């Protein structure tokens, strides 16, 4: 049995997308089979890619440009950002509303009931039908006992605080049972309410107040968001007592909210950017040439960097590169450009094999993959790979093909 090209261990292989599926690279013709082990694939790279796609600088471009992506399993989904909080400020009312950003940065108000003041509950929603459905399902959830769930960190691991709430019909309030910590989240949404901390956006400029609310995430979870986590039980009690009074009136129409913008709380992972792009470069070299080619010791350092984040990868400056040959290729519509190409190493008897990458029309970045002896055949000609990210199609081109394509698209000559 041959060994994993990354960890060099003889473990069972799983199929690896040459270009991450979430980047629009879900093309069945571009898979590495019997090259990458299941541990490297799912325990390391999948997690790394999830951060890269949903909370890195590229995630913003992806949300803006890419129409669809592979969802969980085989389902098609839309790209999303993994924010800790997305709030929109309703300046007229002086409150914040929980929001989602959909493809193209389209803001969508999540269905929610906001406790504007101790006596005032108000419902907010993107459209009347969604609002009605949310209110009736909320009332159904609040008719029973609840399980409060909060995501916490225990050491470096994620864990979940489970707090069962039982309704006391005499005192008309939820009573909490002792908290239990579990490594797992519940596998049902029924009767489950997630508790989330509301954080005042430092980007807010007005005197708007943070008020408790209960909203439904796009994926269906019910969330109680509060400034003080200890308030969740009281807020749910209040909602159960008075929630029936919140209705969407007949003839209601969605309102337009004047807003200065959206306040995102987003922890960006910058290091994963370099690691994921390095990995795609190695994958491309394995696919275009031979898996054994990237098993050469010259690739060891870069592979270890992609796998562990330890050490570093060499970023090559544009002037050491035939980058001018790629010209405005990154302005072809709807493509990522990858180019496996030689670069100067600074040594007379060696050359660097490098990958140049432009995602979503952005500038080219390049990473050295390996320093190889001059005359290594894989260093001969640049190979260009275009990923048509809205079509999940990947195609290989020569520099000549690219020039013709760019001219046909009116980009002028690619020198
Ligand atoms: Zn491995």
What does this structure look like?
The protein has 415 residues and is α+β, with helices and mostly antiparallel strands. It folds into 2 domains: 181 residues, no CATH class; 140 residues, no CATH class. 21% of the residues lie in helices and 32% in strands. The protein contains 7 helices and 22 strands. Strands 8, 9, 10, 11, 12, 13, 14, 15 and 16 form a 9-stranded mixed beta sheet that branches. A hairpin with a 5-residue loop joins β3 and β4. The longest helix has 18 residues. It is elongated and about 85 Å long. The relative contact order is 0.14. Bound molecules: zinc ion. The site of zinc ion has 7 residues, from α1.
Distance between the termini: 46 Å
Total of helices: 7
Oligomeric state of this protein: single chain
**How much helicity do the residues have?**
10-25%
Largest sheet: 9 strands, mixed
**Chain-averaged pLDDT:** 90
Listing every helix as H and every strand as E from the N terminus to the C terminus, the arrangement reads EEHHEEEEEEEHEEEEEEEHEHHEEEEEH
**Backbone CA Rg:** 26 Å
What low-confidence regions span 5 or more consecutive residues with pLDDT below 50?
none
Shape: elongated
Structural class: alpha+beta
The distinct ligands, each listed once, are: zinc ion
Number of strands: 22
Question: Could you say how many structural domains there are in total?
Answer: 2
- Beta percentage is 25-35%
């Amino acid at each position: 049995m041959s060994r994993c090209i990354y960890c060099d261990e003889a473990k069972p292989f799983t199929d690896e997308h040459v270009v991450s599926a979430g980047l629009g690279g879900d093309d069945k013709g571009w898979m590495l089979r019997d090259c990458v082990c299941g541990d490297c694939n799912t325990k390391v790279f999948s997690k790394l890619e999830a951060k890269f796609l949903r909370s890195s600088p590229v995630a913003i471009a992806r949300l803006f440009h890419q129409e669809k992506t592979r969802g969980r399993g085989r389902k098609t989904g839309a790209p999303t950002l993994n924010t800790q909080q997305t709030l929109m400020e309703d300046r007229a009312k002086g409150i914040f509303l929980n929001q989602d950003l959909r493809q193209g940065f389209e803001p969508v108000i999540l269905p929610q009931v906001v406790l504007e003041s101790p006596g005032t509950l108000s419902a907010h929603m993107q459209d009347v039908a969604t609002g009605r459905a949310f209110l009736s399902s909320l009332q159904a959830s609040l008719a029973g006992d609840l399980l409060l769930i909060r995501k916490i960190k225990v050491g470096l691991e994620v864990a979940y605080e489970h707090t069962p709430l039982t309704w006391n019909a005499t005192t008309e309030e939820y009573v909490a049972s002792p908290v239990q910590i579990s490594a797992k989240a519940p596998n049902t949404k029924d009767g489950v309410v997630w508790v989330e901390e509301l954080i005042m956006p430092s980007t807010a400029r007005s005197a708007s107040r943070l008020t408790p609310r209960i909203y439904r995430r796009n994926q269906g979870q019910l969330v109680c968001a509060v400034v003080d986590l200890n308030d969740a039980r009281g807020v749910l009690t209040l909602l159960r007592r008075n929630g029936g009074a919140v209705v969407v009136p007949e003839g209601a129409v969605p309102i337009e909210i004047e807003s200065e913008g959206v306040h995102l709380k987003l922890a960006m992972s910058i290091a994963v950017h370099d690691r994921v792009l390095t990995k795609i470069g190695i994958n491309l070299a394995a696919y275009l040439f031979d898996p054994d080619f990237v098993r050469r010791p010259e690739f060891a350092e870069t592979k270890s960097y992609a796998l562990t984040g330890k050490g570093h990868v060499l970023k090559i400056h544009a002037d050491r590169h035939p980058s001018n040959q790629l010209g405005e290729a990154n302005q072809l519509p709807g493509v990522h450009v990858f180019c496996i190409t030689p670069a100067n190493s600074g040594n007379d008897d060696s050359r660097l094999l490098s990958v140049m990458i432009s995602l979503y029309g952005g500038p080219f970045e390049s990473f050295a993959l390996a320093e190889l002896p001059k005359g290594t055949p894989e260093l001969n000609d640049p190979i260009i790979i275009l990923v048509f990210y809205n079509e999940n199609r990947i195609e290989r081109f020569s520099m000549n093909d690219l020039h013709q394509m760019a001219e046909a698209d009116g980009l002028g000559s690619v020198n």
